[in-house]
Backbone:
């Protein structure tokens, strides 16, 4: 049996979130003991000097026994961010022509 087939058997459910140069993968996989766990992978696209592309990936594993605390901490952290900075994305600061004088302070 090929490795590719066994990898496909481990993946039970998958969702993909495309967000600009980043893609997030939420995958349910199966352990050897037939239990499920979650992997969250961030894949970010970069360009080489020659115009070719490559991706950097970061992966975390979350197991069922940690789901409740993970969810609670994630929601609490996101609420903190929204409470402190609102829901508007402040991306203009990363633009090359950014000037703090242009920020609306109303």
Residues:
């Amino acid at each position: 049996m090929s490795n590719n087939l066994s990898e496909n058997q481990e993946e039970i459910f998958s969702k993909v979130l495309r967000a600009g140069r980043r893609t997030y993968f939420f995958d349910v996989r199966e352990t050897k003991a037939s239990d499920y766990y979650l992997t969250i992978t961030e894949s970010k696209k970069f360009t080489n000097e020659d115009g070719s592309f490559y991706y950097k990936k970061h992966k975390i594993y979350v197991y069922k026994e940690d789901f409740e605390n993970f969810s609670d901490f994630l929601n609490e952290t996101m609420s903190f961010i929204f409470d402190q900075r609102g829901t508007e994305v402040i991306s203009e600061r990363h633009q090359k022509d950014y000037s703090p004088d242009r920020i609306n302070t109303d």
Summary: The chain has two helices and four strands. Residues 1-9 have pLDDT under 50 and may be disordered. The domain at 3-95 is CATH 3.10.450.700 (Nuclear Transport Factor 2; Chain: A,).
